[in-house]
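Many introductory courses stop at the sequence. We go one step further.
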Amino acid sequence: MFEIDVRGNTARGIREGVLTFEYEGDKSLIDIPYAAFASPVKADLGYKIFENGEVEVTGSIAFSLKGQCSRCLSDVERTYEGEVDALFVPNLPSGEEDYGYFGGKIDLREALRDALMFALPARLECESECSLPAWE
């Protein structure tokens, strides 16, 4: 589920693919009081394997948060979306801008965690006046 077999796909002549799956979001990423994931994170991804072994993974994630509004404390559940846009480079050491992979297989967990982290809102707000900017 969290893996692309680059070596196996290349041997079979497969250069592109689609991955659709759900997974439990990392609760430690939520920094909003009284908020939690209301559903699994849904990932819709596509990948393209290039001749040099690099793999581009793009797509989206969607998830719902439930909890109390950060402003009025009413119960709320909202859905959010985020983008996944990652380049995996063979034998790239960690700490680089792109993601590395070794042994012909890509582990998507780090890229999905990063996409989820960037998609999480700073606060959970209900859809009433609480979600309007403060200057309105």
